[in-house]
Recover the amino acids of this structure.
C-alpha cells in the first residue's frame, strides 16, 4: 500500500515508527501498553496536523486530498521524523501559481518554526530565487555557479545555459 491509501494520521504515525515502545507481542495482543502508546502517537500526529492547519483532513484518505494538501502532508510526514535537514525534491512540480506562492510561505515558516536546513531541488526559478539563501546551479551535472540568488541571477554562464542569449527574461519576478 502506498501512503495515499492511508489517512494523514496514519501517514504521520508511520513516520513516528522509531517512537513505538511496545513489543511485537503487545502489538499482536493489543495489550494496555499498546493502546496507550497508540493513543500517544495519534495525539502527536494530531498535534502536527494542527500546527499545519490540516486537522480537518485527519480522517480523509490522502489520495482524496487536493494536490497541494497532499504535498504539504508529505512534508509534515517528513517532519515527524524530527530531521535536522529537510530535503525537498521538486516540491512545486504540478502546482499552480497560487499553490506555489503558498508553498514558498510554507517553506519559510517550516525553516523558522523547526530551525531546519532545507535542501531544495527545484526547476521553478521564481521559487528558488525567493526561498533560497544559497544556490548551486548544475548544467548536465556540472556546477556552473554557486552563490546568493543575486550572484546566480547575474552569472553569465547561468544566463547562457538556461536562458540563451535572451537575458531580458525575468525569472525572479514572473
Amino acid at each position: 500500500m502506498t501512503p495515499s491509501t492511508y489517512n494523514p494520521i496514519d501517514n504521520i504515525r508511520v513516520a513516528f515508527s522509531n517512537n513505538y515502545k511496545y513489543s511485537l507481542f503487545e502489538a499482536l495482543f493489543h495489550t494496555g501498553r499498546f493502546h496507550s502508546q497508540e493513543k500517544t502517537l495519534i495525539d502527536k500526529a494530531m498535534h502536527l496536523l494542527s500546527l499545519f492547519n490540516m486537522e480537518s483532513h485527519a480522517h480523509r484518505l490522502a489520495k482524496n486530498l487536493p494536490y497541494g494538501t497532499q504535498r504539504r502532508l508529505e512534508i509534515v510526514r517528513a517532519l515527524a521524523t524530527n530531521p535536522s535537514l529537510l530535503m525537498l525534491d521538486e516540491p512545486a512540480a504540478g502546482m499552480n501559481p497560487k499553490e506555489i506562492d503558498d508553498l514558498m510561505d510554507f517553506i519559510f515558516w517550516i525553516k523558522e518554526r523547526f530551525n531546519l536546513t532545507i535542501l531544495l531541488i527545484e526547476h521553478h526559478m521564481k521559487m528558488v530565487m525567493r526561498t533560497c539563501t544559497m544556490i548551486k546551479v548544475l548544467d548536465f551535472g556540472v556546477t556552473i555557479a554557486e552563490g546568493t540568488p543575486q550572484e546566480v541571477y547575474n552569472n553569465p554562464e547561468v544566463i547562457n545555459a538556461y536562458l540563451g542569449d535572451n537575458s531580458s527574461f525575468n525569472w525572479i519576478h514572473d
Observations:
- Residues 57 and 136 are 36 Å apart (CA to CA).
- The first strand starts at residue 85 and ends at 89.
- Residues 1-82 form one domain.
